[in-house]
Amino acid sequence: MGQQIVTADAFAGKRFAGNPAAVCVLGSRADEAWMKKVAMEMNLPETAFLVPRAAEASFDIRWFTPTGEEVALCGHATIASSHVLWTEGHVKPSKKLTFHSKSGPLAAERKRVDGEDWIELDFPSLPDRPRRSDGVLKKALGVSPRYVGSYGDDLIAELEDESTVRKLSPDYELLKTLKVRGVAVTAEASRATKAEGYDCVSRFFAPGIGINEDPVTGSAHCCIGPYWAERLGKKTVVGYQASARGGVVRVRVDGDRVGLGGQAVTVLRGEMQS
Fold first, then answer.
1. Whole-angstrom Cα distance, residue 236 to residue 259?
2. Quick one: which of 114, 69, 101, 137 has its CA closest to 222?
3. What is the mean pLDDT of residues 99-128?
4. Residues labelled as active-site residues
């Protein structure tokens, strides 16, 4: 029997929205070269590999991009992994999940929000540090950011308004020359978008790791959420990532941790031949 693989759209309540991820629940540790090949074959923004630990509902987790590069933290593939573990019968839905990653321990649990089922991840907060905007970033984005900060291996850039974020057409080749994993651009939501229940909008570009524009980026909201929570005076921020697919991320700020909330839906199940 081959290896089961499931794909799910994360940070979305319906198929063909949000951010797709492939999930492999393994029986034991796999060769890293094999995992990279699987991720390249799936050609999705991330492929997650899970290995159960002795403790109940506890798993090692690793994430790989379509170029075979491993990332240290990925929100949408963890949402997808949690969804798959609960819906495919690996773990009872009532059980809280614990993940062991290169970014430390992470957790996931099911919650009811406004009468709907959501998944909330316990992730580290990633506060930004101010960084002077250089000419390369400005030229790559085609606009002058109001503010630029760095967090982890990424940059956050606040733009003038929501319309600027949505209309942005960056130079991906030039973005590749920046010594960062990716660039999150964000702005406070417009009055109309706030009326829909959102506090901020964003987009995320990571051409250096094979993803020109990520549909929805959980890890970026570990910074975007606290960034807007501080400026808006809120504990919970609802962000809309304005990619072509679009997706919603709820961020609950709790000290040096954040609760990343999202939904997920299964798209397909398959079996990889050995």
1. 9
2. 101
3. 95
4. 46
